[in-house]
Amino acid sequence: MDALLKAAWSNAISTHFTAVEIELPDAALRLVDGGMVAFEVDGEAQSFTSRDVTYGVLGGVDTITDGVATTAVSAQITLIPSSDGAVAALAAPAAQGSQVRVWQGAVDPETGQAIGVPERLFIGSLDFANLKVGEANRQVILQCGSDDELQLEPTAHQRLSHAFHISVWPGEYGLIHIPKVAGKVFWRVAEPRKSIASGSGGGGNVTNGGVVVR
């Protein structure tokens, strides 16, 4: 964590903020949960405001879940849309996959500048949007996922073979002379220790997680 930000948060009086950036197809939406704040994003100074004329205001950011075992990092962001057009744009198929980033930091109320470097809490993409209608207002709930989700997609159809390889990279014949590969790729779990099992004729087989490699 940035030293200046850490010092600001340790003060008895500090102005915290949560900022959200969504790279929509037509423009980048940058909102903060109150007032305004400016800080560098990818080397360029960017301003975050509490209200966007087109899309509305930031309702909140739910607790961002960490990815463990078979779950991926995810975030839920609530927007209060300014119009029916905003609802349609946020829920449009073209918006799916838009990059989403969330920061927390402290702002200098006199200058509107962030103190130090804000802490980035999440980077991922927009998965889908839900419309929630209440008595007083409407909310668009944005469900956002991270790249970890791609690692959790079923891959039973994938094989380390020539046939599958050229189905992904046509014309690439790097595996044409490899008829069979025995092995496992372990992800988010510890790889089992290799052991030596005795065999006939004084030889042995090296086993790796139950897969015999001859």
How would you characterize this protein structure?
- The strands form 3 sheets. The chain has an 8-stranded antiparallel beta sheet with strand order 2-1-8-9-10-7-6-5. A 3-stranded antiparallel beta sheet has the order 11-12-13, with no helix packed on it.
- A hairpin with a 2-residue loop joins strand 12 (204-208) and strand 13.
- The protein is mainly beta.
- The longest helix has 8 residues, at 3-10.
- The chain is built from 4 helices and 13 strands.
- Helices cover 13% and strands 39% of the residues.
- It has helices spanning 3-10, 84-91, 148-151, 162-168, and strands spanning 16-23, 28-32, 36-41, 44-49, 51-52, 56-61, 74-80, 99-106, 119-133, 138-145, 195-198, 204-208, 211-213.
- The protein folds into 2 domains: 3-151, no CATH class; 162-213, no CATH class.
What structural keywords apply?
13% helix, 8-stranded antiparallel β-sheet, extended, mainly beta, 4 helices
Radius of gyration: 25 Å
Whole-number total of structural domains: 2
Low-confidence parts, pLDDT < 50 over ≥5 residues? Answer: 206-214
Shape: extended
SSE string, helices as H and strands as E: HEEEEEEEHEEEHHEEE
Strand fraction = 35-45%
Quick structural overview:
The protein is mainly beta and about 210 residues long. It has helices at about 5-10, 85-90, 150, 160-170; strands at about 15-25, 30, 35-40, 45-50, 50, 55-60, 75-80, 100-105, 120-135, 140-145, 195-200, 205-210, 210-214. A hairpin with a 4-residue loop joins strand 9 and strand 10.
